[in-house]
Specification:
Blueprint (H helix, E strand, L loop, with lengths): L2 E8 L3 H18 L4 E5 L4 H7 L5 H9 L2 E6 L14 H12 L3 E6 L13 H4 L4 E6 L11 E3 L3 E3 L6 H16 L4 E6 L5 H14 L6 E6 H10 L6 E4 L1 H12 L9 E5 L4 E5 L16 H13 L4 H16 L2 E2 L9 E2 L2 H18 L10
Parallel strand pairs: 1-2, 1-3, 3-12, 5-10, 8-9, 8-10, 13-14
Antiparallel strand pairs: 4-5, 4-11, 6-7, 11-12
The structure holds nicotinamide-adenine-dinucleotide (NAD).
The site of nicotinamide-adenine-dinucleotide has 22 residues, from α4.
């Protein structure tokens, strides 16, 4: 049966990077005999321009029926003036909530060829392999009441219930079991009641995973430790807002926001997107780094379709282009050739094809 994939390219560099990621996805599917049905819809500012809303209800419904969703990025200065409730970013929240993708997985693992592109010393980042597991559908980004009162007072609400904490903790522990079996739960339990409950529930869940080493860390300390000695972390488990900030920080260990993929998963659905935004400063120039989005496709193949064979080949193809000295501008360390978004995508496809045929993966089926 065909796997239904919905693609939302979005705004700014979104369509540029998604264009390359789609090439990789389609080729991987063809060679790996994975039948796909791919549909594409506008989201964010692009959707506001056409329909006046950041995400049409009808497209959200199609996304809910799909097996996986690939997203570029949304937003940009053009839409900064629109009313907050229909800003482009609201589409992301609606999608995450609608798909019930409550766990956001953000790996931060520097590519060896790029160690010099990190702003940190090579010896600090070389062995880093962090998976940030961020709660995605609760916390302060969704809490009510929220608003701005009479232009004088802005307020948001931070709420977590036991069930929300329990299911994200379980996800983090399950993933840690496949890794180094170490979870650092990050909170602000010295100040926030939600964090006190968070800590209590995480401890309870941990009791069912005796093989896991669990630490608790305050978020301010964690922000410092990620820079000071990132090698100490395996899985970082944290809430929505802390995870948003810490995963961007962790991304800098790898040299550029343009390198980091993410998977948002629930019990059934998966939403895959780079962690970066729409980068309006470089949109339309053909210089955006498509690797984060291509690596998000690799995560889709692994988490939604259990095709670790194909996702590993994509990862290898990315490693190889970097080792061969190909760089987009954001990761230019002076050691290789600076190439366009499109060329980077094409070179990754070529190396994927080569590796796939070497391993005997090469049945050419047609996708729609
Ligand atoms: P950003 O991630 O778009 O850009 C930050 C910096 O990183 C910029 O200098 C940009 O050029 C660079 N950068 C990001 N991705 C890159 C890539 N693939 N290749 C090369 N360089 C890259 O963050 P921002 O500037 O804070 O936000 C811009 C817009 O994106 C805003 O409207 C914001 O709301 C939106 N945004 C959307 C998402 C999303 O769709 N998931 C996430 C974050 C920000």
């Amino acid at each position: 049966m065909k796997k239904r994939i919905v693609v939302f390219p979005g705004d700014g560099i979104g369509p540029e990077v998604v264009g390359q990621a789609k090439k990789v996805l389609v080729r991987a599917a063809e060679m790996g005999s994975l039948a796909l049905d791919v549909q594409e819809f506008p989201i964010g500012g692009a959707s506001i321009d056409i329909f006046g809303v950041p995400l049409k209800e009808e497209y959200l419904k199609v996304a809910k029926r799909a097996d996986a969703v690939l997203l570029g990025a949304v937003g940009g200065p053009k839409w900064d003036v629109v009313e907050p409730s229909i800003r482009p970013e609201q589409a992301l929240l609606a999608l995450r909530k609608g798909l019930k993708t409550y766990a956001n997985l953000r790996p931060a693992r520097p590519y060896s060829a790029l160690l010099k592109a990190s702003t940190l010393k090579e010896e600090v980042v070389k062995d880093v392999d962090i998976l940030v597991v961020r709660e995605l559908t609760g916390g302060i980004y969704f809490g009510r009441p929220r608003g701005i009162k009479d232009g004088k007072k802005g307020y948001n609400t931070l709420v977590y219930d036991r069930k929300e904490i329990e299911r994200i903790a379980r996800k983090a522990f399950d993933l840690a079991m496949l890794r180094k079996k170490h979870v650092t739960s990050v909170d602000k339990a010295n100040i926030l009641e939600t964090s006190m409950l968070w800590r209590e529930v995480v401890k309870e869940v941990a009791a069912g995973y005796p093989a896991i080493r669990l630490d608790h860390m305050y978020v301010d300390n964690c922000a410092m430790q990620i820079i000071r000695s990132p090698g100490q972390f395996d899985v970082i488990l944290t809430d929505n807002m802390f995870g948003d900030i810490l995963s961007d920080e962790a991304s800098m260990l790898t040299g550029s926001l343009g390198m980091l993929p993410s998977a948002s998963i629930g019990d059934k659905k998966g939403l895959f997107e780079p962690i970066h935004g729409s980068a309006p400063d470089i949109a339309g120039k053909g210089i955006a780094n498509p690797i984060a989005t291509i690596a998000s496709v690799a995560m889709m193949l692994e988490y939604s379709f259990s095709r670790v064979d194909l996702s590993a080949l994509i990862e290898e193809a990315i490693q190889e282009v970097l080792q061969d000295g190909l760089r987009t501008k954001d990761i230019d360390d002076g050691s290789g050739d600076v190439v366009s978004t499109e060329r980077m995508g094409e070179e990754i496809v070529k190396r994927f094809e080569h590796r796939a045929s070497q391993r005997g993966i090469g049945n050419v089926g047609k996708t729609k």
